[in-house]
Amino acid sequence: MNIDNTASQMRKGVLEFCILSIIKEGEAYPSDIIEKMKAANLNILEGTLYPLLTRLKNAELLSYRWEESTSGPPRKYFSLTDKGGKFYKELETTWFELANAVRALTRNGQAPIINNDPSQTEEDNNFNNPK
After folding, report:
1. Dihedral in degrees, nearest 10, Cα atoms 56, 15, 84, 80
2. What count of other Cβ atoms lies within 10 Å of the Cβ of residue 86?
3. Tens digit of each residue's pLDDT (9 = 90 or more) over 24-58
4. Which domains does the chain have, with CATH numbers?
5. CA-CA distances (angstroms) from residue 111 to 61, 96, 108, 116, 124?
6. Full-model pTM
7. Which DSSP letter does residue 114 get?
8. Distances from the Cα of 56 to the Cαs of 20, 34, 51, 53, 59, in angstroms?
9. What is the pLDDT of residues 70-94, one digit of tens each?
10. In a 3-state reduction of DSSP, which class is residue 44?
């Protein structure tokens, strides 16, 4: 079994969530997304990012606007739509459920990863850590 292939598949599984997380913070230009992903040690190539952005846009999760550039062609900046914001919240919930389940199985019941979202209740944050 090839660990590189398995690691690659794991990364691919979270790319949409990571991309939406970056865009959720504010409008993003694709090269900025690549840099933020790289800074987090999640390298992504343009050839992977652009089809994902197009798919997310076609699903009405993202919108974009063009901005003229002084140093080249116009730039496309992406932002979350209302539908994208709702989808992101669902992904975030799914991520924390999955991360907590994996943590519970691999760390012998250590405390769960807490979602610091103020809209989440203590019960939501501690679902994998029953009292």
Report:
1. -90
2. 12
3. 999 999 999 999 999 999 989 999 999 999 999 99
4. 7-80 (1.10.10.10), 82-131 (no CATH)
5. 33, 13, 9, 14, 14
6. 0.77
7. P
8. 9, 16, 9, 5, 5
9. 888 999 999 999 999 999 999 999 9
10. coil
